[in-house]
Amino acid sequence: MRTARGGARGRTRGQPHTRGRVNTSLPVRDSKAGVTPHTQMEHIASVSRSSGLEQGGDALKDFKVQEQYRVFVGEKLHKFWTEKQTKDGQENILILFRKLREGIFASKRSDAFAIEVYETSLCLSSLFDSAIQTSSILSHLLPELYNSALIQPPISSVLMSLLHHLIAGYPSQKTYFEHLSRLSPNVLDRTSEAYVWISNLATSLRTLNHIRVEALSRHDVYSHILAVSKSSNEINNALSQDAVRALVERLRSKARDKAWVVLRSAYRELSASEDTRTWMAKCLLLSTGQTCASGLSLEEWIDGRCRDGHLRPKEGAVGRWIVCKVR
After folding, report:
1. pLDDT of 2-50, one tens digit each?
2. Which of 1, 76, 285, 292 has CB atoms 3.0–4.6 Å from 214's, for a disulfide?
3. pLDDT tens digit sequence for 189-223
4. Dihedral sign for Cα atoms in the order 185, 123, 162, 115
């Protein structure tokens, strides 16, 4: 799985889709002598900021320029995966894709190219934990852009949208249900395995059944659902699986914090007995010897709570901790 700061596995992910491949030899309009196409792309005006008044402000409304700009952004993204990843680097990539989406939206483009740009943007904003960007992308993509392009949304995009709303509104599920109501059975079959999984996950979160949440959010439980999902291209299929997993891990973290609030108010001390460790790992959605759903182990979590002042070792008792109550 690629994380926001992970390695460069699958370094070509996020490159333009192969259907209707862009001809990168097309000249950029209004090119100036001595100015390379790459330099022009670096400084191309944003549709939203120029409002068409700045010179070249409408350039990204042109379909061919959009396709050239997508190639340029793809090169930037490829370079990003091969280098040390930083928050600034993530934000710069998201800005480039946002500029391209603005041109697509302003030109009212709705085809496979537009879908690919929005799907890649959705995956990247999910991986980079940019909830604001994700909300903006989803407001145009699902179901509106898919409907306009007459393209069936892949289940990965549908699940990303629902997971986003579960995370953004947590613990409230108001926006999750509002978004779910907008998805027709053609988009998300109410008898499908994907719907059963996301519904059970939402119900378990709502009823604070954290052990059930832990079981449902293991990667091996939902990964086969994504295996049948077909995005706009094979590259996005792989990227979308990483994005879904990142969102699930973020949701597990939310549930873990909530579970700790419950445990902290109910117990005066914790022990390191085998039975207690197994139970706590499930309640707190942590990694165990049987499951590696989360990268955080019980030991690491306990060390973190001790640093936060939530726990302290019990004097004279190895493997026992006093729970420090909230004041």
Report:
1. 555 444 444 445 555 444 443 333 344 444 444 456 778 888 988 865 4
2. 285
3. 999 999 999 999 999 999 999 999 999 999 999 99
4. negative
Helices (H), the chain: 37-42, 47-50, 63-82, 87-106, 112-127, 131-140, 146-149, 155-169, 174-181, 193-206, 210-216, 219-227, 234-266, 274-283, 298-308
pLDDT at residue number 47? 86
Question: 3-class SS at 170?
Answer: coil
Class of residue 103 by CB neighbours under 10 A (exposed 0-12, middle 13-18, buried 19+): buried
Q: Tell me the C-alpha distance between 291 and 296, whole Å.
A: 11
CB 93 within 8 Å of CB 76: yes
Measuring CA to CA, which residue among 148, 41, 47 is closest to residue 103?
47
210: tokens are: 């954290």
The answer to whether 235 and 152 have CB atoms below 8 angstroms apart is no
Name the one residue in this structure whose structure tokens are 């988009």.
187
Contact predicate 280/298, CB 8 Å: yes
- List of long-range contacts for 133-136, beta carbons under 8 Å, 24+ apart: 133/94, 133/98, 134/160, 134/164, 134/168, 135/164, 135/168, 136/98
Write the pLDDT tens digit of every residue in 92-141: 999 999 999 999 999 999 999 999 999 999 999 999 999 999 999 999 99
How far from each other are the two terminal CA atoms of the chain, in whole angstroms?
A: 40
Q: Look at residues 165, 174, 172 and name the one whose alpha carbon lies nearest to residue 198.
A: 165
Distance CA 301, CA 253 (A): 11
Question: What's the token pair of residue 33?
Answer: 């002598």
Q: Which of 253, 229, 101, 237 is nearest to 167 (CA)?
A: 253
Taking phi first (over 0 means left), then psi (-120 to 50 degrees means alpha), and beta for anything else, what does residue 150 get?
Answer: left
